Model the fold of this input.
Amino acid sequence: MIRLLVLWLLDNESMSGYDIKQMLQTMDAKRWGGVLIGSIYYALKKLEKNGYICVTDMEQAQYRPRVTYSITQKGKKYLRTLIYDSLTEFSLSYPSSLYAGISLCDKLTSGEVYTALESQLKRLDIEYESVMKGWKEKCEAMNNDVTPMVKLVFDNMFAMIRQQQDFIKKVLECLET
Done:
């Protein structure tokens, strides 16, 4: 994922590692893409070593050189491969830990189960608000000119959160009966 996002950003414009880091943080790539922001510099070195990106400028900043990278033709081809691979990779995730806990919840008191599931609902509410904040920031950054595909992605994220909330509420109803 980090290679895909770095190459995509560089395909749009030349950037420094710091600029890439800022963009990925703004995009909340850690939340939805599992991107560890600290891995950017390692990825840049690896991409450069493999000829997918190149250094186009280097200037001395306060404490270290500020290196600007650009994508190469080889990198553009690799980006296309990564995009295709991401579309073909099976990516359905089940909340297996939650399923295991629910399946074995008879080993706890109903109060413990209720407290744990209420906590899960609160975390889902926080997640919903975070995704909503990201959506609003994305709309603002793009002057409300969000592509239909990006809107579909956000709609799906919201639907997944709501589905999880509904599932937990049904489990709580089951406990009450």
